[in-house]
Amino acid sequence: MWMILAILSAVFAALTSILAKIGIDGVNSNLATAIRTVVVVIMAWGMVFITHTQNGLGDISRKSWIFLILSGLATGASWLCYYKALQLGDVSKVVPIDKLSIVITLFLAFVFLHEEFTARSLIGCTLIAAGTLVMVL
User: CA–CA separation, 15 vs 58, rounded Å?
Assistant: First the structure.
């Protein structure tokens, strides 16, 4: 099931880029990000209430609150930068650079979460980085 959800995530992420590029034409990128964020908030809270999981709010630990808030701040910063980059550049160049987050994530997972970094991971990261360079140069 995780594989299907991951593929759907990739499809929706691709649609996000195309729809955003069309939508930000003549719109301030920060305003566009704020509009998108409101839609995401409504969708997310809608799912919480549809699945009846709102009662779990009181069960969230202080540590989880801190890291979820930090994650939200990182997401917001990412979206603001992403929308500005989309407004200024070509989708076909912005998106591959944005996807370097895969390489950065694997490195950070190794350093902070002590996840295994294998030869296969290194080869994959190298190919992603090389592919990004080929696409944007």
Answer: 35
> Is residue 129 within 8 Å of 105, Cβ to Cβ?
no
pLDDT tens for each residue of 14-72: 999 999 999 999 999 999 999 999 999 999 999 999 999 999 999 999 999 999 999 99
**DSSP letter string, 32-75:** HHHHHHHHHHHHHHHHHHHTT-GGGGGG--HHHHHHHHHHHHHH
CA distance 125 to 80: 25
Retrieve residue 90's tokens: 């070509």
Q: How far apart are CA 10 and CA 72, in angstroms?
A: 20
